[in-house]
Specification:
The structure is a single chain. The protein is mostly helical. The protein has a two-stranded antiparallel sheet with strand order 1-2. It has one domain. It is built from 15 helices and two strands. About 2% of the residues have low confidence. InterPro entries: Phos_transporter. It comes from Roseovarius spongiae. It holds the Pfam family PHO4. GO terms for molecular function: phosphate transmembrane transporter activity. This is Phosphate transporter.
């Protein structure tokens, strides 16, 4: 006769084994399903965008075309959120001033606000003058060219996100429009002067952003970090830098982010920035004095003083980005809507509100679902960032846009921000080498590093540097080639 206690023990052991199998099965199923959750939700959003287009556009002969264009615009917006927004939030996350969740939340709010409040930009029907309007012989040809351009740009940005390369969505759209225009009307239809200026921005944007970011890092090192009393130096210079940041962003938003609410001339924008910058500088002095009380005289204490200004600058960059770059996703869509409604594709178009909502929500969903990969790459895998270095990158991004606007140069916000990250990294390498040479002169008997050891101590990861530069160079030709092929395929398919 069996012991009831032993039967209970065996029963519990069997139950534990069964529960363990179910637990392992659940873990395995979760592991398999996790990679498809993001694409699945993105696909649902694209379908909802098409449904919204059908509801807003109503019953018309071209409703199906507008629905298809809305789906492509939503797909492009998702990719902008996944790739472009990382440039604004990456430095703050890499410097540990923001958690990944906090960065995504701030970016979603400010990207959407920028897109909906100040993003109703008026865009040329043939996307910023890349293609001459008279080159398109019919509204149907124009519509299919814009479709091909939008799809090609979205596919290219999607591919770049997958390989971990931050690319310019503006350049992707420009390349797409150029490729479709060439396929539709030949090389003579392209405004090569505009394309030359865009090609020049491949070099100008990152170099200018990197130089300005490195200059600010040099200022912080010489005036604060290398001083005997770091805290006393910070009490003087941090308010100056915060005031400069406030003034720069005020001018930046006046020029770029709020141009649809009120038109502000360049000189007036600078005046607004100067007034606000002085006011913020004066208000920040007592705040920094209180915040610095009791801090130890070391570099770690300085990070505390830069953390909040860095978060604010990231939020402002997101607002300006939403105001400007949402047109990359929905500009061609708005042009298709107008061409489908009226048959007119030679005039400038205003982006309707429902189209703007698709762009704003798409950027937010793309950031939430796919953004962390690029945020981590920009923030921590190119070079090591702390709040001071990340602050230099954010300030450089705003200043570079203002300088470029003054000089009349087309620039890419992506190239500027990533160029700023490279700039602070290469400056740190140069500064470390300079200090090492100085130490050797002071102590000639000190052993020197081998070439392999010096190579290992490089502060910028060369593999990421080469990947990103290569992606930048081929963005326009790759998007153009893909767009031309898509346009050819669409027109052949439709007969």
């Amino acid at each position: 006769m069996s012991d009831p206690n032993q039967d209970d023990v065996r029963h519990l052991e069997t139950l534990d084994r069964d529960l363990g199998r179910f637990s392992n099965l659940e873990i395995a199923a979760s592991y398999i399903a996790r990679p498809i959750v993001g694409p699945g939700l993105a696909f649902v959003f694209v379908l909802l965008a098409g449904l919204a287009a059908a509801l807003f556009f109503g019953q018309a002969n071209n409703t199906l075309i507008v629905v298809m264009a809305a789906c492509l615009g939503a797909y492009m917006a998702l990719n902008i959120g996944a790739n472009d927004v990382a440039n604004n939030m990456g430095p703050a996350v890499g410097a540990n001033a923001l958690s990944m969740g906090g960065a995504i939340a701030i970016a979603i709010v400010f990207e959407s606000a920028g897109a909906l409040i100040a993003g109703g930009d008026v865009v040329s029907t043939i996307a910023k003058g890349i293609i001459a309007p008279e080159a398109m012989t019919s509204a149907a040809m124009f519509t299919w060219a814009m479709m091909a351009a939008l799809l090609a740009a979205a596919i290219w940005v999607n591919l770049a996100t997958w390989i971990g390369a931050p690319v310019s969505t503006t350049h992707s759209v420009v390349g797409g429009v150029m490729g479709a225009g060439v396929a539709a009307a030949g090389f003579a239809a392209v405004d090569w002067t505009t394309m030359s200026a865009i090609a020049a921005s491949w070099v100008i944007s990152p170099v200018l952003g990197g130089v300005i970011a490195a200059a600010f890092l040099a200022l912080i090192k010489s005036r604060i970090i290398y001083r005997e009393d770091k805290i006393a130096a910070a009490r003087v210079w941090v308010p100056v830098l915060v005031g400069l940041m406030a003034g720069t962003f005020a001018a930046y938003l006046a020029l770029k982010g709020l141009r649809q609410l009120v038109r502000i001339e360049f000189g007036h924008a600078l005046l607004i920035g100067a007034v606000l910058g002085v006011a913020v500088w004066a208000a920040t002095i007592p705040v920094i004095r209180r915040q610095s009380q009791g801090l130890e005289n070391r570099n770690k204490s300085l990070k505390i003083l830069f953390a909040i200004p860095l978060v604010v600058s990231a939020a402002l960059l997101s607002f300006a980005h939403g105001a400007n770059d949402v047109a990359n996703a929905v500009g061609p869509l708005a042009a298709i809507v107008q061409a489908s409604q009226s048959g007119d594709f030679t005039q400038a178009v205003s982006i309707p509100l429902w189209v703007m909502v698709i762009g704003a929500l798409g950027i937010s969903f793309g950031l939430f679902l796919f953004g962390p990969k690029l945020i981590r790459m920009v923030g921590g895998q190119i070079t090591k960032l702390n709040p001071m270095r990340a602050y230099c990158v954010a300030l450089s991004a705003a200043l570079t846009v203002i300088v470029a606007s003054w000089l009349g140069l087309p620039v890419s916000s992506t190239h500027i921000a990533v160029g700023g990250v490279f700039g602070v990294g290469f400056f740190r390498e140069w500064d470390a080498e300079r200090r090492l040479r100085k130490a050797r002169r002071a102590m000639p008997d000190r052993p020197s590093y081998s070439r392999e050891e010096r190579q290992r101590r490089k502060l910028v990861r060369r593999s990421h540097f080469m990947t990103i530069i290569a992606a930048w160079i081929i963005t326009v030709p790759a998007a153009a080639t893909l767009s031309g092929a898509l346009f050819w395929g669409i027109t052949r398919l439709l007969g």
